[in-house]
Amino acid sequence: MNGLRCPRCRAPYPRWRVLFRPGIFSCPSCGARLTYSLYSARRAGWVVSIGLFGAVTLGDLVFGFDQLGSWRFLVPLLAFTLVLGQIVRSLFGVLVLRDDFPRADREPR
Q1: Average pLDDT over residues 51-75
Q2: Is 44 exposed, middle or buried (0-12, 13-18, 19+ CB in 10 A)?
Q3: 80 closest CA partner among 70, 90, 88
Q4: CA nearest 85: which of 26, 24, 20?
Q5: For the residues of 46-94, what is the DSSP string, one character each?
Q6: DSSP state letter for 6
Q7: Is 106 a residue whose pLDDT tops 60?
Q8: Helix axis angle, 38-63 to 71-92, nearest 10°
Q9: Calpha distance 98→103 (Å, rounded)
């Protein structure tokens, strides 16, 4: 739960910034480029998928099975998934330096 710190300078990263930004951040103290670790992205994916399964199951009980493919169910489900994903990222995410990742084919082999 305490992983939102810059690995370079150990300054805390505000959780509210995670909710409104894409996956690449910059540290407010030292300016390092940060992103989520692969492990925290996998963990967030599992938590969101379990939440999505629960929402679909609850929707089946409330609205009936025939409504699961309609836009009246799918649009709120998509919004729920996006909001839940951002909240889970801010709670369970661990930041790593973005510069540690290898560059994508910038030099010919």
Answers
A1: 78
A2: buried
A3: 88
A4: 20
A5: HHHHHHHHHHHHHHHHHH-GGGTTSHHHHHHHHHHHHHHHHHHHHHH--
A6: -
A7: no
A8: 150
A9: 10
